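This part of the workshop introduces the protein records we will be handling. An example says more than a description, so a record of this kind follows.
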Amino acid sequence: MKHNLFIQLCKYKMTEFVTPLENFCTEALVWLIEHLLECDKRIGDKILQLFGINESKEINIETQVAYYVKNNNQNCKLIPDIHITVDNDKHVFIEVKVDSGLHESNIGCKDQLDDYNLLKNERPNCEVYSLTKFNLLTESINSDHQKKWSDIYKILTQSRDELAVQFREFIEDNDMEGFQALKFDISRIKSEQNNFNDILRQAFEESELNGTYILDEKGYIYADGNGWYVNKKNNEDNKAHFWFGVIPNEKSFMSKILFEVLQHSVKDYEKICFKKEKDYYNNIIIGNLNLDEEILAHDYSREKQIQNVKNWLNDINKQMNA
């Protein structure tokens, strides 16, 4: 039966984890894929190929269908955002996000996506993907199974179908077409927070710190700031030792990106903490980068912004290895 967008949207309930925008995007995307498979099959097929679906005779797409899986000898209820059945044999599950990140598992797994792996255990020909606005730090699925709304956007630019064009405009209107250079725009603060965190993540992954240190997968919000916890690789106590990002509510630091040794780790890094400034949580600031001059000023491109943060992180790395 063809997907009825209006009936499906009525099924949703507001929760603390899911936004109305994510609900709408999920249902609208499924409706658009089915439309394109009929009216612009080349583009519809390209979207399906993003999720590992190539040649197929029969495609069935469902949303918000409950499944029961075994975990620790208990029946647990899972409701994937999208379930695509291919030729009654292959199963593709997609977790859809826009601005929100992964929430904790409700059934004892590592995170929300790890819940889906229970479905894989019960279905031999099953794949799990995410569709998000920005990268997720999770070990629950492979990085090549993490797709972005910008991937959908790029495919839709190849279609002249009127509904594909309108959906593309919808993606642009909600800042989902891919991150641009960071700008301060209060009307887009949530999007810019995610954009900022993604710039920090990419700069870190390209820096000399990466390898010896890793970003903590559990989250990036610290107190009233935005940034990332940083852990030493193969750290036995599994505690983050550092944090870097911005603390916008503290006047002394609001225009700076800080790199800090967390209070509980100061004794382990006494040499680099000696005579350094503290924040109001007694974390030790071992480096700062002027946000206005190095990121927001001069109409820098996104690539230049990432390069500036990476260079700064390389200086932090030298300081830590001195």
